Amino acid sequence: MPSRPQRVLFVCLGNICRSPAAEAVFRTLISERDLEERFEVDSAGTGGWHEGDRADPRSRAEGARRGHAVDSMARQIRDHDLDHHDMIVCMDRENHQAMIGLGTDPGKVRLLLEWHSESGIDEVPDPYYGGEDGFVRMYDLIEAACEGLLGELLSAETDA
């Protein structure tokens, strides 16, 4: 077992739809497996428009329907995040590039859908300006990808 928790940060644009959903899904997965002490999980946005706000009500509702507590408060990326987190998992290419542009080690910035088996899709679509169905699709993608992410992180622990 590692000497400290693995630190994972999920990132989207405003931190009210996709990244708090991914944070909540990942927390559910580690809780179900009794792995809370092995991971430190957070989320943030590259923009600060929603700083201090709760997640979008549609995201919270769909998360609750699926058993995920989406209870984080929106915040913007801080300089501290760049070095503090072992892995920064972005929802789309734009935020991936933004994180690298901020000076984050490119080796620890990944796209969440790298762990999704559906070929031809590499970004979690932003459901903010759409209807409820966008949040259903968002959670479908995030849940599948977070399973793969957790599997890779646990596998890396046993290989270390």
Structure explained in plain terms:
A four-stranded parallel beta sheet has the order 2-1-3-4, with helices on both faces. It is built from five helices and four strands, in the order βαβααβαβα. It has helices spanning about 20-30, 55-65, 80-85, 95-100, 130-160, and strands at about 5-10, 40-45, 85-90, 110. It is globular and about 40 Å long. The model has no long low-confidence stretch (mean pLDDT about 95). The protein has one domain: Rossmann fold (3-Layer(aba) Sandwich), CATH 3.40.50. The protein is of the alpha/beta class and about 160 residues long.
Keywords:
160 residues; alpha/beta; Rossmann fold; 4-stranded parallel β-sheet; 5 helices; globular
